[in-house]
């Protein structure tokens, strides 16, 4: 009879997947997407036209400076207009042959200068294809810089209703979108996240290599917002293996999964069905209380619950005498409600949970 797999075996299973983090940056373009500033199509066309005309004008002046080394079939001396005409038919590869370089210096300039300009002009003409390649190169470069700088960010696994609400709360509380990484398997959902300025990684949050690609091992927090409760347990277990020091917050629909998430490594568990049920019960008798709770949970308008450090002149005083409405004091990682005997006075390393006006 086979025994239960030990922790070492579970760990090996989690890390046996293909190592995405070992792939080169250009191979991650379709998996990781770092938002970039969009380029206007009209601006792109104007830039190409300017580049094309600039190459022709530059070639014309070079030919004009060496006009004595060129021969016209009519035997006329080369003028500036003739030089521009020759540059135009030469760079655009039309090449009528009525004007040709005859001196060695003119031919050398054609080899070293005019021919590279002709090739560059062709590149501009096929700019659509080149732009696609350039876009991939730019994205690969952005991914490389992003992976090097990624520290103390927040990873949001799942960009459904709960995930989007969590991101809105983070950005409303002042977290820059560039410091949030969204992990999801749905490309359409990730497209919306990218348009919101978020870095996205396509893949399953239950796979260790996907989380490492999202930088979970260096993240300050991981939010698990999976659509299924059993998936949330597996994702939390994987996230804790990859990010042993990160704060993991998970959401589930049913409270029966709470202890499984805590055993899997979640620091906080939010039970959405129980919370919604309590709000529904309160709304039947005191709907204004529900409105106030919604206000407090919306950080970018009205009032919000926030956390801050204790100021030096507040040490030793009572939380009830501060200018802010203090709800609780966080001391040594434990939350103590204001008004109890444990928080008659504020200590130096305390943190205050208070009501802030947005």
Automatic annotation (TrEMBL):
Keywords tagged on the record:
Ion channel, Ion transport, Membrane, Transmembrane, Transmembrane helix, Transport
Q: Which GO terms describe its cellular component?
A: plasma membrane
Can you say where in the cell this protein is located?
A: Cell membrane
Residues crossing the lipid bilayer are: 45-65, 111-133
Question: Chief localization class?
Answer: membrane
* Signal peptide boundaries: none
Full protein name: Potassium channel family protein
């Amino acid at each position: 009879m086979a025994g239960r797999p030990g922790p070492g075996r579970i760990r090996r299973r989690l890390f046996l997947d293909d190592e995405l983090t070992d792939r080169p940056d250009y191979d991650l373009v379709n998996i990781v997407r770092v938002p970039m500033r969009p380029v206007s199509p009209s601006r792109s066309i104007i830039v190409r036209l300017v580049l094309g005309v600039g190459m022709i004008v530059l070639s014309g002046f070079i030919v004009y400076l060496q006009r004595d080394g060129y021969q016209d079939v009519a035997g006329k001396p080369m003028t500036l207009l003739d030089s521009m005409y020759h540059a135009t038919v030469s760079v655009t590869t039309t090449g009528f042959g009525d004007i040709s370089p005859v001196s060695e210096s003119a031919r050398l300039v054609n080899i070293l200068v005019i021919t590279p300009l002709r090739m560059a002009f062709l590149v501009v003409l096929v700019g659509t294809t080149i732009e696609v390649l350039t876009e991939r190169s730019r994205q690969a470069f952005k991914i490389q810089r992003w992976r090097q700088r990624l520290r103390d960010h927040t990873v949001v696994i799942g960009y459904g209703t709960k995930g989007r609400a969590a991101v809105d709360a983070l950005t409303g509380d002042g977290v820059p979108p560039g410091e949030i990484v969204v992990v999801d398997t749905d490309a359409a959902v990730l497209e919306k996240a990218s348009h919101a300025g978020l870095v996205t990684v396509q893949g399953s949050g239950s796979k260790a290599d996907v989380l490492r690609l999202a930088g979970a091992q260096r993240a300050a927090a991981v939010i698990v917002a999976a659509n299924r409760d059993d998936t949330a347990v597996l994702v939390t277990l994987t996230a804790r293996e990859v990010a042993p020091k990160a704060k993991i917050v998970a959401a589930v629909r049913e409270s029966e999964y709470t202890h499984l998430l805590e055993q899997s490594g979640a620091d906080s568990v939010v039970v959405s069905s129980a919370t919604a049920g309590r709000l529904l019960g309160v709304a039947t008798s005191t709907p204004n209380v529900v409105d106030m709770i919604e206000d407090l949970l919306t950080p970018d308008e009205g009032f919000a619950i926030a956390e801050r450090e204790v100021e030096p002149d507040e040490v030793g005083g009572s939380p009830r005498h501060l200018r802010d409405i203090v709800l609780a004091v966080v001391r040594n990682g434990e939350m103590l409600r204001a008004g109890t005997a444990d928080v008659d006075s504020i200590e130096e390393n305390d943190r205050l949970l208070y009501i802030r006006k947005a």
